[in-house]
Amino acid sequence: LLSVVTHELGNPLTSISAFISLLSKNKSGNLTERDLSMIDAITRSETQMRVLLKDLLDLSRVEANEMELDIDAVDLRDVVRGVAQSMEPILETKSQSIFLDQNDEIIDVDGDKSRLDQVVTNLVSNASKYSPDNSEIRLSVSADDESCIIEVADKGIGISVEDQEKLFTPFFRSDNPETRQVSGTGLGLVICKQIIELHGGTMIVRSSRGRGTTVRVELPIAPQGSRSA
Known about the structure:
Layout lengths: L1 H24 L7 H31 L8 E4 H17 L4 E5 L6 E4 L1 H17 L6 E8 L3 E7 L7 H4 L12 H4 L7 H11 L3 E6 L5 E8 L9
Parallel strand pairs: 2-4
Antiparallel strand pairs: 1-3, 4-5, 5-7, 6-7
Helix pairs in contact: 1-2, 2-7, 3-4, 4-7
């Protein structure tokens, strides 16, 4: 049902997006500033709806065990660097900064780069949403003998012990004033956890109210020589 509904909603949304684009260009020059501001509001809502549809489609694939991975050798340093760069404009809107902690050694996993990008982007985005202005987000990548480790740490509002127990339940969102101010579907972390588990890894959340949150992702390190193979 989720898959069918998501597909059916995608078609009219594409038409909405096309007409929004035409209107925003204001080729006739007859739209007022108020008209254009309303078009911007429609555009933001359309973007939110696309995010929701994408999450629903991913959830339907996860629940049907149909999510597929395009496996290749992936250097996690490339993943975190790319996410840090792409998130900079979003962080700037809240005067936030990102501290990237990594070494010079190749940190290879056998994984789907686009899906790993999705996971790290979601974690950094969450850290930004639930952290105050002018704060710093720490993004690190490292490795030991068996695992590659990615950590995203913030100094935001944190998550209570009670809510942490429900964190990976689809559509769950903490019911508090700070959370209600932030838009979201309650699906991002659920999907991210499933993606990591499909890679044979684990995702752990450590948090406390008012003291921030750290999300730790561990992935099996790629065997020696897998990159050349």
